[in-house]
Amino acid sequence: MVNGRSKIGATLAVLASTLLPPAAGHAQDSTLALEEVIVTARKRQESLQNVPVAVTAISAELQQSTVRNLQDIQGFSPNIIIDKVSGTQGGASISIRGISYQEVDKSLDPPIGVIVDGIYLGQNSGQILNNFDIDRIEVIRGPQGTLFGKNTIGGAINIIRSEPTKELGGKVRVGTGSWDQRDFEGLLNLPVTADGGLKLFGSRLKNDGYIDNDIYNSKAGDQNYTSYGATFAYSVTENLEVSLSAEHIDDKSEVGAWANFNTFDDFTCFTTLGLDIPDVPNSTAPYGSGCAALDTNSDKNHNSQNAPNWANVHNDYYNLTANWQLGDWLLTSITGYVNRNESQRLEYDASANEFLYVLASANYEQTSQELRLNGQIGDVNLTAGLYYWYSEHKQVQDSYDMWYYFGFNEAMGLGPGEISQNLTGRGDNTSYAGFINGDWAITDRWVLNLGGRYSWEEKTFKGGPGAYDNVFTGEVFIPAGPVRHLDDNWTEFTPRVALQYEMTDEMMLFGSYSKGYKSGGFFARTQYIETLNSYDPEYVDTYELGMKSQWLENRLRFNSTLFYSEYSDKQEDIIVPDDSGAVGTIVANASDVEMYGAEIELNALVTPNLIAYLQAGYLNSEYGDFEADINGDGVITDNSGLTLRNSPESTFGTGLTYNYNIDLGEFAFHYNYFWRDKYQSIFDNNPLGKVKAAGFHNASIDFTFRENYVLSVYGRNLGNERYARPVLITPVSNFGQYNEPRNYGVELTARF
């Protein structure tokens, strides 16, 4: 008689065998198996297959020439998409299971945590990190409020860089490619003492951009990126290891290659004075027609923006980490500091016209300290710690040529002139937390996981709207609003409970509940709003059922997860009337969302020379309770049933690596494909914000010769799939940017 467990195992084995043909000459070779994957998703080293968490580990794939930065990892994990944000240099819009963020204002927090060597990055600006000197990336899905803390309600991306080897060695890589791209990467390991080592690293990337600009006869979307740093590691004793890292990044790349999506009818007409107002420079329609239209000749390969979106960004990162082995316990201290200074010019009309442009500058600093203890008491594995966080930001935004956008009426007695507005705000954030997480081995098959984190957080903000004035005459059209001093604090408890069952030595089942929260605060982009523009935290409660399994003598790894999430008190952009007679945007806790879905991941060692992977995700997300004015017409509407933005219903990825030896060396062929469904980029599901479904083919060929040299040829987006990600500034402008087209390159790497 075959029991239920055997039926399940037999069925999965049959399915797996259809994907894995026997390897010639190695069908009975027990040494032919997938390598064990070690992750730190629970802040201690564990086998991927033993962790009751939905996590994808990406390591060998990072060596492929087609993986250039953080955005390129989205094809390796289900239910994740990563896009670049319009409005900040290196900014990431990361969506995990439909929970996302695309704001660039420093007063707001992202819901996805990006952690680099234990340091949480508190802003999405600068999160599109280049793939350089990275050993492993872990994509952890679902709320991580217990171990990683606040602002990880959707999940976390854990980035682990290489450590100094304390031996002489290194690598150099040079490359060239489409759009006159030139890039260089170098890494040098040096032994300093018998117990210490120094790692030096640096990179340079420059290209001319991928969209033709028809106004200033150049390219748009260029990259100009430089980074360098050092890590010193020293074994103080055989039980105490200390490392200090410092890195500096200069990024002068253009802030995206924007396209104008306006039409003549989209642009609001604002002439009410009856004066003989001259035509707007470069406009396609005179003011005599009653409307100044933005030109509409942008497409996926051209734009007519009258000036580039330049940026000048400086990032500094410091990390001091100590690991002290105290008998059976490991005490870890991680001290981090991040400083980001940025200045940029942004053409928010993205057209040939002299309409709205913004000069923005910001400074952001963060300091964090974590003390963590890992060990075991009897049958319980424990992780416990304390956490401290402080961050502060200051941002200034000067907006110019605003009079074209605002309908100054006859009663104000205003004629034409270059109207500007200055917005200045500064804020700080202090938080403390204590956490504990434990695994109790109830039996040799059952393990109970219990964890919790208690957090206290305080935020302050000082700022307000500046005056609208004429930059030439000094005439004030609308006086500055009041400067407000705001502060608030919150306390939160974020638990996690999981129960796992080792069905066999090769299969583990688990069920879990976890909770996370995203911080409350104050929205800095106030515009004459009488009410205090504050909002409370938002929360996600997630339930998961998962399976992790290995088949065919560990030549096949198959993991799957079902999840259901309740997203409550969601922070939304709400449009309300302001004191100037126009409308302004506030952030308010206005909605609830229900989400559910499924994920599968498969890795297979098909033959000794061929390894393949496949991942797929399904997501259903829609608003349950959401009544608000979301388009500025003054009418409160029931928005239940709207789809969450940045939440494609389906994602799919697959790929393979094939190695082939010849007398002169070894060839390696890499191929990967990523497809994601259509999705909405605008939270009110405006048709203009629909991003079409798209699939991307990438491939590279590596030839390793003389053991230490690798010549690589690569192609990205080989199908030349193009899509636009729109931005709507209602009611004044619609713009966005297209993704990069098909591109090629060649690289040479030397290791020593």
Q: How do the strands and helices of this protein lay out in sequence?
A:
Elements lengths: L3 H16 L18 E2 L6 E2 L7 E4 L21 E5 L7 E5 L15 E5 L2 E3 L12 E8 L13 E7 L7 E9 L3 E11 L4 E12 L3 E3 L4 E3 L2 E15 L2 E12 L6 E3 L41 E2 L7 E16 L2 E19 L9 E21 L2 E21 L18 E23 L4 E25 L5 E3 L5 E21 L2 E12 L2 E2 L11 E2 L2 E14 L4 E22 L5 E25 L2 E19 L8 E2 L11 E13 L2 E12 L2 E2 L9 E2 L2 E12 L3 E8 L7 E6 L3 E6 L4 E9 L1
Parallel strand pairs: 6-9, 13-18
Antiparallel strand pairs: 1-2, 3-8, 4-5, 6-7, 8-9, 10-11, 10-43, 11-12, 12-15, 13-14, 15-16, 16-19, 17-42, 19-20, 20-21, 21-22, 22-23, 23-24, 24-25, 24-26, 26-27, 27-30, 28-29, 30-31, 31-32, 32-33, 33-34, 33-35, 35-36, 36-39, 37-38, 39-40, 40-43, 41-42
3D architecture notes:
The chain has a 22-stranded antiparallel β-barrel. The model is unreliable at 1-28, 264-293 and 407-417 (pLDDT under 50). It is globular and about 80 Å long. It is built from 1 helix and 43 strands. The protein has a single domain (40-751), classed as Maltoporin, Chain A. Strand 30 (538-551) and strand 31 form a beta hairpin. It starts with a helix and ends with a strand. By secondary structure, it is mainly beta.
- As a percent range, the share of strand residues is over 45%
- The count of strands amounts to 43
Can you tell me the residue ranges where pLDDT is under 50 for at least 5 consecutive residues? 1-28, 264-293, 407-417
Quote the average pLDDT.
Answer: 85
What is the 3D shape? globular
End-to-end separation in angstroms reads 60 Å
Number of H- or I-type helical stretches? 1
Indicate how many domains the architecture comprises. 1
The CATH class name reads: Mainly Beta
Name the CATH architecture.
Answer: Beta Barrel
